[in-house]
Structures are given as C-alpha cells and as structure tokens.
Write a structure and sequence with these properties.
Length: 186
C-alpha cells in the first residue's frame, strides 16, 4: 500500500508476543500492540537521520467482543455465522516514531464494516479458502472477503491494515508531509 502511494518501506516483523497485552477496549489494545511493535523494531535500528518506524495492529470490535485472527476454521465459521448481516468496527492502531528526534505520535483508525448476509455455503467456502484464518476479524476487504463486505463507513486502508490519511496526520505532527516521503522518480 505504501509503495503504491509512492513511499518506499522496509517491512520488519516485530516478533511481539501479542498475548502479553490485555485490554478491554479495542482501541487501547490495538494501539498498545502498535506501540510495542514499533518500539521493538526501533530498538533493532541505528538512529540514522530520517528513519521513521510505523507500527500497526488491527482488531475487530463486534458484539462487545475484541476479535483478532480466528486461527481455526471452526472459529472462523462461528464468527461469520454471528457476523453475517451485521456490522463491526475495524480498529487499527498506528504508532509512528522518528528515530532521529525521538518524537512519537499515535492514533487509532476506526472503520465501520457492514457484512453481507452470507449463506452457510458461502461461509463454508470462504473459510475453506483459508483467507479468513490469518487476518483480524476473519475477513479482508480487497481479497476474497471483498464480496462479503456490503459497505464501510471510514477509511478502506484502515481495514487493510494502514490508514494513509491517518499517517499523513501523524507525519504533520512531526513537521513532515507525505510528498516529502515520495520516492524520487526517474
Ligand atoms: N490486502 C489485505 N491485507 C490484509 C487485510 N486485513 C489484514 N491484512 C494483512 O494481514 C496481516 C495480518 O492482518 P491483521 O491480523 O489484520 O493485522 P495485524 O493485527 O497487524 O497482524 P499481526 O501483525 O500479525 O498482529 C497484516 O499484514 C495485514 O496487513 C485486508 O483486508 N487486505
């Protein structure tokens, strides 16, 4: 997503054990995980000038629960049977650190997702595809799951895992602009 937006990135898996974070609020949980991920990666990097580290984490708030990845087919079927025809709020925590200045900025993106009223057969086929097992909320918006999201209220990128307009706001608190991060073409 960032590369398509003109920004070159070096993706690092933080290795943070997400089970250590307990929170009863979806926004607090995904923000704490985003913070831990960014700080874990930042700790492995030399404080070179101009290095920014962005950590993100997504969870789905649905029916009073905080849902991450379903991990198993049984759990994915249970969730979709409950979610179909209803709505949830996909939260993505974003934490940005400037290694040079030590500045930090963070914000939670929220997108309301309205799920289609899937048939049992559609749920079975989508879960059998394996896609729902590895993403928060057991759905993607731009993959096979796109057919099962009727509409959204808010930023689509936030559902995918990173909100570009939110990143723009975080950068502005550092006195930076998105165009300054665009790769030099040609
Ligand atoms: N293209 C696409 N990728 C998605 C979507 N939802 C999640 N992903 C990606 O799937 C991976 C895991 O997704 P999530 O579990 O939602 O995100 P996360 O909580 O940051 O995942 P972890 O880093 O494993 O904790 C991340 O790399 C996401 O970018 C989606 O709707 N579309």
């Amino acid at each position: 997503m960032l590369h398509a937006a003109g920004i070159d990135v070096d993706v690092r898996v933080s290795g943070v054990d997400e089970s250590i974070v307990k929170a009863t609020d979806a926004g607090e949980l995904c923000l704490e995980l985003a913070r831990l991920k960014a700080r874990a990666v930042a700790a492995t990097l030399p404080a070179e000038p101009g290095v920014l580290v962005l950590g993100c984490d997504s969870v789905l708030a649905f029916d009073g629960q905080i849902l991450g990845k379903p991990h198993t087919a049984v759990e994915a079927v249970r969730r979709w049977t409950a979610m179909r025809g209803k709505q949830g709020v996909l939260h993505t925590g974003h934490h940005l650190t400037d290694l040079t200045t030590g500045k930090q900025a963070e914000e939670v993106g929220r997108t309301v997702v309205h799920f289609a009223d899937l048939t049992d057969q559609e749920i079975e086929a989508y879960v059998a595809s394996g896609e729902p097992l590895h993403v928060a909320g057991a759905f993607t918006i731009d993959g096979k799951g796109g057919a099962f999201v009727e509409r959204i209220e808010g930023d689509a990128g936030n559902v995918i895992g990173l909100s570009l307009p939110l990143l723009r706001r975080l950068l502005m608190t550092f006195g930076l602009t998105v165009p300054q991060l665009w790769r030099r073409e040609g």
